[in-house]
Amino acid sequence: DTAVSQTPKYLVTQMGNDKSIKCEQNLGHDTMYWYKQDSKKFLKIMFSYNNKELIINETVPNRFSPKSPDKAHLNLHINSLELGDSAVYFCASSQVGGKPEAFFGQGTRLTVV
Amino acid sequence: TQLLEQSPQFLSIQEGENLTVYCNSSSVFSSLQWYRQEPGEGPVLLVTVVTGGEVKKLKRLTFQFGDARKDSSLHITAAQPGDTGLYLCAGNSGGSNYKLTFGKGTLLTVNP
Asked: Are B105 and A99 inside 8 Å of each other by CB?
């Protein structure tokens, strides 16, 4: 059983398109995150949701819209994709009030051409 | 903004050598974690340190949290090719959002 699973693993698309990445966790955690890892391997938080509510939005362009239908799912929709959006996007989850450790998905490598 | 500086950024060593990776900040963290990331995978937690001065061992890996909870180190003894990967430190400032601030990572290559 994969604890945090995200799909797709690879995504190649043209500039201007709209795409979505899905994430699900079966750990029973109440908090989920989206991180972006750039070509230099720097991991930067984009969003954090706790019990379906947005907690952190790190000045991400509004072309990025996360949606949490329930606390086990956090999807990321990106409108009007740009070349600079190319990166690896990681979903993660943790339990607030428990150990402050994040469990990560395998990542989605997004390439915008 | 809390920042974590990791050094060195790159490290290439021979099998059997020892190494230390550093993670430093001017901010105090309630806890600090070390992750290892392999190509094509997400980061995987190695250890969490919480108490200033704490030392934790995981086989050949030794983790230390600074007394002031602003810095940490990871020491690997007798490195093996299987230790190759990106090592990331991440600090947690506490509170209710558990936001993790990551360092930029140390890319370790252990050559056989």
From this structure: no
Q: Do B105 and A45 make contact, defined as CB atoms within 8 angstroms?
A: no
Residue of B nearest to A94 (CA): B98
CB distance B96 to B89 below 8 Å: no
B contacts of A53 (beta carbons < 8 Å)? none
Show which of residues 23-62 on chain B sit within 8 Å of chain A, judged by CB atoms.
30-31, 33, 37, 40-45, 48
DSSP B82-94: GG-EEEEEEEE--
B88 contact residues in A (CB cutoff 8 A): 43
Q: Per-residue pLDDT tens for B9-40? A: 999 999 999 999 999 999 898 889 999 999 99
pLDDT of residue A18: 98
Burial of A66-89, coded b for 16+ CB within 10 Å and e otherwise, reads bebeebbbbbbebeebeeebbbbb
Task: Give the nearest chain A residue to B103 (CA atoms).
Answer: A42
Q: Which regions in chain A score pLDDT beneath 70?
A: 1
C-alpha to C-alpha distance for A82 and B52, rounded to whole angstroms: 44
Cβ–Cβ gap A43/B88 under 8 Å: yes
Q: Given this model, what pLDDT does residue B97 score?
A: 56
Q: Which residues contact A62 (CB under 8 A, 6 or more apart)?
A: none
Sign (positive/negative) of CA torsion A4, A5, A9, A14? negative
